[in-house]
């Protein structure tokens, strides 16, 4: 939407077209640049372009797979900024995507290319309504309107189906009902947590390809009858639906099969607290010993690390 060139002495800004809807921000929570620079950037965007939507695609720290020792510090600190300056944050963790690649795509040792191609399907599904026609299109502002019941509770869980290898595609052309049910299975989630241990506050189902509203309504009606899928009592309806006629596109010769239809589910569920709880536990273990804190603050200062969270 905008082009930024930042230096110590000047900043050149290329304004967006009048009909631009907002910003899509791609970053990681655990890295220094992904957390620190993104936090600064989002603060500046909020000041200069406060009315524009700000949507994040964030790589969340995995339970077992870590790329940095100070990942818990970076993640907790950037989350503080995210709470205030992001409208909606779609999260994925590398471990969940690794497992999906191994289980669904039969890739023994997934590379970042494999992971990125899977994540790209999610991004493509979320933005499809901005680029193609459909029966029920969803723009950027509708995500926050329908998924965010309270301003600071804006971390939807992402699920995608079907994730099928090219070898299995000819035998597994799944129906609308089947791919809808698959979205409520923990194995297809992009973050390691169990939605059966929480309650749904809102769901956004983004369908692509050969899908008609009648089949979608039938599939959702079936979902609502299942006891394992619980919604909060103050939001009984809970579903926002988008249908786009453009089928999913895949990289030629890639891992993912080209399918007739697919769905990306964005769900705001209390089960995401499992992921936050793991992160907080790791943070507390390190901070209790003062490990690596000197990289962030000076111990001589009268302000402890927690003062930056208030």
Task: Give a verbal description of the structure.
There is one protein chain. This protein is of the alpha/beta class. The protein has one domain: Tubulin/FtsZ, GTPase domain (Rossmann fold, 3-Layer(aba) Sandwich), CATH 3.40.50. It has eight helices and nine strands. The chain has helices at 32-48, 71-85, 94-105, 112-131, 140-147, 176-182, 213-224, 273-288, and strands spanning 3-6, 11-14, 22-28, 53-60, 88-93, 157-161, 200-209, 239-244, 261-269. The strands form three sheets. It has a four-stranded mixed sheet, with helices on both faces. A three-stranded parallel sheet has the order 3-4-5, sandwiched between helices. Helix 2 packs across helix 8 (273-288), helix 3 (94-105) crosses helix 4 (112-131) and helix 6 (176-182) packs across helix 7 (213-224). It is globular, with a radius of gyration of 20 Å. One of its GO terms (cellular component) is microtubule. It catalyses: GTP + H2O = GDP + phosphate + H(+).
Secondary structure elements and their pairing?
Elements: E1 3-6, E2 11-14, E3 22-28, H1 32-48, E4 53-60, H2 71-85, E5 88-93, H3 94-105, H4 112-131, H5 140-147, E6 157-161, H6 176-182, E7 200-209, H7 213-224, E8 239-244, E9 261-269, H8 273-288
Parallel strand pairs: 3-4, 4-5, 7-8
Antiparallel strand pairs: 1-2, 6-9, 7-9
Helix pairs in contact: 1-2, 2-8, 3-4, 6-7
GO cellular component, one term: microtubule
Catalytic activity: GTP + H2O = GDP + phosphate + H(+)
InterPro entries: Alpha_tubulin, Tub_FtsZ_C, Tubulin, Tubulin/FtsZ-like_C, Tubulin/FtsZ_2-layer-sand-dom, Tubulin/FtsZ_GTPase_sf, Tubulin_C, Tubulin_CS
